[in-house]
């Protein structure tokens, strides 16, 4: 059965590749598109190249998989899903090709000539003969008004669909879907080095999965604390504190953003008379493990700045993480929470959707590499305004690029399953973003749905463009119980989001807050939840953003 599915899937891949080649050629032949023909052709060729790499990765035999293909080791359910996704892409591209082919034939045919003195043929009127003419105004008008627009839409939809094929296959390969006894670590290492996987970018995510799955850092051999010396002296003495969580510092004319995590020496057995001598080995291992994940190269979609390292500041009872700053931007960031409270900050509908899409995709990427954030809220989402133009200065709020939020707040962030329950923390400004199961002293392990809940609260704030503390009756609901707070947030979304952001956006926020993704019998890695979240949240936001 598995071999039959593999053979059918190879045939679908081949059909998709042939259609892509034909489409690219016809696009070159037909110069009746509004957009640049060369750009459109290159886009189709890029999708074709991606399809070739996917086929090579899935079906080239490798010793890692016992000299059979990777595809044959996938569960049959996953194999079927890959085939269905590919067939959808084939259908979309075939429809576009049919329209292009009809236009290509129209242009290649010799036009029939009509003479005013020629009698109608077989009783047809001259108007009917005009309709038969390949260059008649009616047929050209039909292409201009209907077929051309439809072809452009189909090619755009194909690109988006092929992107979803790519992302779903990556999700399948990074999760534990190998039906036979293949070592997961060897499989991930193969994804790191296989040429097709590298060309597709799967190697970057595979490296993150290996780090997330790996053993804790050894304090002696994997120490990522910034060492003593001129550099750390400069970094720590030049800190300009923004608030209790963030600061800006510099070294050698380069600016960095710093993030602080409280380290209470009173709970450390290594303290002497209340004064800490050093960070205990377990905490140091956790800090090194987190820094190792943060500094690992990532795709832009993770929205995580590169981490230079960490440093303990005993006089401040803080641990400091040091991150780089985007080029061409101011060193002092603005948090999403501050923007929500700033009357001068007035993003457009499309800018709100860009923010929402980027943040939803970030959560999706973290889930894919089995990494939960656990402290996702508006104060931990930062924007770095573009540097002002000395010739035409504009307000700082107008220089914010809303399509480029950066996610911080990693003091509790961890590989999935790393910690158990957590400590008691009762605070409204943090609880409002926490799922009811995680408020107070959590008795439920943190899971993907809890980060999705926090995302729902942030999307509610973005949609209403109001911070959580401006929402009516929030504090009263919180004082009652955690579930009342959740119900109130859902109520706000249902009452106000539709007319401000549209029904689809409202539905997304309600789904994130309520956790109603209609997933049953999920896998150990919540694969069905991840797929549904992508399809019903990330993809819907992407389409909404592209339609404006």
TrEMBL record:
<dbReference type="InterPro" id="IPR011009">
    <property type="entry name" value="Kinase-like_dom_sf"/>
</dbReference>
<dbReference type="Pfam" id="PF24476">
    <property type="entry name" value="DUF7580"/>
</dbReference>
<feature type="domain" description="DUF7580">
    <location>
        <begin position="331"/>
        <end position="543"/>
    </location>
</feature>
<dbReference type="InterPro" id="IPR056002">
    <property type="entry name" value="DUF7580"/>
</dbReference>
<protein>
    <recommendedName>
        <fullName>DUF7580 domain-containing protein</fullName>
    </recommendedName>
</protein>
<dbReference type="InterPro" id="IPR038305">
    <property type="entry name" value="HeLo_sf"/>
</dbReference>
């Amino acid at each position: 059965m598995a071999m039959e599915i593999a053979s059918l899937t190879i045939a679908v891949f081949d059909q998709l590749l042939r259609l892509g080649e034909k489409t690219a050629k016809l696009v070159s032949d037909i110069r009746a598109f509004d957009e640049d023909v060369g750009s459109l052709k290159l886009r189709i060729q890029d999708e074709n190249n991606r399809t070739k790499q996917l086929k090579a990765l899935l079906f080239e035999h490798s010793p890692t998989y016992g000299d059979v293909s990777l595809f044959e080791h996938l569960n049959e359910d996953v194999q079927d899903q890959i085939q269905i996704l590919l067939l959808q892409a084939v259908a979309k591209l075939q429809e576009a090709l049919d329209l292009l082919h009809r236009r290509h034939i129209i242009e290649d045919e010799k036009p029939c000539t009509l003479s005013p003195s020629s009698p109608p043929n077989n009783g047809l009127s001259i108007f009917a003969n005009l309709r038969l003419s390949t260059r008649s105004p009616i047929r050209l008008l039909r292409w201009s008004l209907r077929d051309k627009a439809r072809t452009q839409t189909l090619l755009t939809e194909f690109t988006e669909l092929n992107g979803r094929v790519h992302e779903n296959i990556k999700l399948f390969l990074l999760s534990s879907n190998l039906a036979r006894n293949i070592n997961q670590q060897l499989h991930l290492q193969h994804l790191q080095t296989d040429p097709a996987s590298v060309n597709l970018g799967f190697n970057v995510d595979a490296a993150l999965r290996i780090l997330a799955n790996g053993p804790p850092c050894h304090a002696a051999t994997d120490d990522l604390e910034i060492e003593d010396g001129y550099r750390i002296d400069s970094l720590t003495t030049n800190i300009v504190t923004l608030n209790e969580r963030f600061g800006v510092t510099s070294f050698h004319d380069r600016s960095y953003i710093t993030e602080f995590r409280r380290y209470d020496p009173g709970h450390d057995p290594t303290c002497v008379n209340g004064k800490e001598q050093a960070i205990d080995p377990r905490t140091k291992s956790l800090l090194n493990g987190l820094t190792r994940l943060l500094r690992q190269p990532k795709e832009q979609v993770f929205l995580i700045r590169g981490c230079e390292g960490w440093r303990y500041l005993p006089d401040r009872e803080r641990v400091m993480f040091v991150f780089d700053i985007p080029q061409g931007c101011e060193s002092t960031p603005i948090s999403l929470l501050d923007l929500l409270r700033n009357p001068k900050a007035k993003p457009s509908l499309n800018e709100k959707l860009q923010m929402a899409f980027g943040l939803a995709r970030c959560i999706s990427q973290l889930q894919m590499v089995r990494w939960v954030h656990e402290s996702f809220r508006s104060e931990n989402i930062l924007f770095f305004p573009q540097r002002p133009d000395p010739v035409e200065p504009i307000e700082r709020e107008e220089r914010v690029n809303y399509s480029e939020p950066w996610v911080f707040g990693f003091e509790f962030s961890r590989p999935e399953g790393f910690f158990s329950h957590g400590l008691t923390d009762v605070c409204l400004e943090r609880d409002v973003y926490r799922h009811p199961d995680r408020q107070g002293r959590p008795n439920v392990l943190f899971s993907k749905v809890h980060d999705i809940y926090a995302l729902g609260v942030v999307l509610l704030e973005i949609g209403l463009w109001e911070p959580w503390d401006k929402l009516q009756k929030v504090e009263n609901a919180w004082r009652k119980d955690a579930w009342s707070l959740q119900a109130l947030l859902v109520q706000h979304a249902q009452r106000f989001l539709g007319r401000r952001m549209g029904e689809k956006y409202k539905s997304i926020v309600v789904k994130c807050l309520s956790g109603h993704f209609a997933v049953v019998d999920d896998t150990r890695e919540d694969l069905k939840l991840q797929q549904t979240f992508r399809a019903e949240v990330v993809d819907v936001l992407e389409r909404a953003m592209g339609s404006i």
